[in-house]
């Protein structure tokens, strides 16, 4: 988990380079670069809240939706936040869809497909060296609380970006501000809950 680094923003050099590609109409290159840059953490987030097969399907769908959606990217958030918003939508669609008749959708662009495979490989390597205990405790929480915990602790995203991801890209600015304040308070309650579960499992106070 990341605790000591600053979260990327719209002023982050790598994110700025992605936005420049989008502005230049280089959607294929921007999609590939975004998946290579943010793919492992996006897949990791999906794996925290979905079964593996569903998480990988959602991630594949995300790569296609990112390619489709970058043309309407409006610059109100970082590309990273945009990707997380799409990932959350992809997870919703997986949960809402019947189990039968599923198919994995990936972009037809070979370079983007290669980036998707690379992100999966990177995430699997991280999983092999990461402990599972905290993830197990996290799963005692509800779906949205899990998402909040991962976005804030694991990804170090600012509160306003988290509000953007959870509410959607069309949410008015004043509503984002109010919801961000609500999320801060909710986060404190989640931490208390995690400490209680840890104590119950003999992990200390």
Count up the domains: 1
Number of helices: 9
Range of helix content: over 70%
- Helix/strand/pairing class, anyone? mainly alpha
Number of strands: 0
Mean pLDDT equals: 79
Q: Please mark out the parts with pLDDT under 50 across 5 or more consecutive residues, or reply none.
A: 1-10, 100-105
Largest sheet: none
Instruction: Estimate the strand proportion.
Output: under 5%
Query: How would the global form be characterised?
Result: globular
Elements, N to C (H/E) = HHHHHHHHH
Q: How widely separated are the two ends?
A: 21 Å
Radius of gyration equals: 17 Å
What are the SSEs and their pairings?
Layout: H1 13-23, H2 27-49, H3 52-69, H4 79-96, H5 110-129, H6 133-138, H7 143-154, H8 159-167, H9 173-200
Helix pairs in contact: 1-2, 2-3, 2-4, 2-5, 3-4, 3-5, 4-8, 8-9
What does this protein structure show overall?
- The protein is an all-alpha fold.
- The chain has one domain.
- It is built from nine helices and no strands.
